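re: ur question from the group chat, yeah i did fold both. here u go
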Amino acid sequence: MWSWGSRLATVAVLIVLGAACGQALPVDGPEPSAQSPVDAPLDNERYTILEMATAHGAFTIELEVDADADTKTLARELVEPVQDSYAEVLVYFYDRAGDRQLPMKRVQWTQAEGYVEIEF
């Protein structure tokens, strides 16, 4: 069961993501698709947001994606609008077609280390 603090934090995150709508997102590497995730619904062709949580200066996002998704670009698109508000952002990627309960990848962002991706 979600506490009121968790619910308020989730609403705050959604407001921050909504406020970023319409802004160009700088991305190193390949150009993002025409529709940025912050402009898209929580469930779209590129990903489905399964869960979001904040605690102690960290923001965690769990996504379901196709196995061949460009996870680094997706993580950047989701992290950049909120990175000034958190010390750490973790984006977990689950295989949309898989039946594993563990994520296939995680991208961690911190100001000190930047983006670090690991495969599980």
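okk and heres the other one u asked abt
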Amino acid sequence: MNLVTRRAAILGLLAFTSSAALAAPHPLYGGEAEAQNSFRDPALFPPGESPVDFPIERVDLDTIPERFHRQLAPYHGFEVPGTLIIDPTQRFLYLVLEGGLALRYGVGVGRAGFAWSGEATVGMKRRWPRWLPPEEMVYRDAKAAEWVNGMPGGPENPLGARALYLHANGADTLYRIHGTTEPQSIGKAMSSGCIRMLNEDVADLFERVPIGAKVIVLAAEI
């Protein structure tokens, strides 16, 4: 894929659509707005991230299509090194490097991953983050209802080993880049979630990307 061509073709669609996301009545994964949910009890929230940095169990990459393995890829665009570019349609996340290269990661995309596009910054990072299930999931899923006030971070948490929280215009977009307990979802569009990565990949990205890094989310072609 020619990333430059694709970005140029949909540049006009990159005007912020975050206003709709910011007006959402509840966060998908937590964030600054999470305490506003009247059906939750903030006093019962677990820590934002686990106090234990659990070891990350590596996935057998033979179970993941090779195109979605972490790898170097050519980049001939104009973004400065350190910029993240997310292409939900192709299921790739790029970290722009020096010398006309990018580090490309395979990702899984959920419903929320198609719902927002634009420019943002990494506003917060967490290791083994807590998970607050969406309100509609709490009402329809008994397992999610058990965690109405948040599931502590850890190996069983659906947000996986790390999470990067994207902010725009000083507010939480509710868009997340996070790990997963379902490595088979990489390269696929699943029913829920934003951008999910293998735990070892999101941990690698976590160390490379600082707070404040620029993020470009390309408009999805469904």
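fwiw on the second one: The CA atoms of residues 51 and 133 lie 21 Å apart. The two ends are 17 Å apart (CA to CA). idk if thats what u expected
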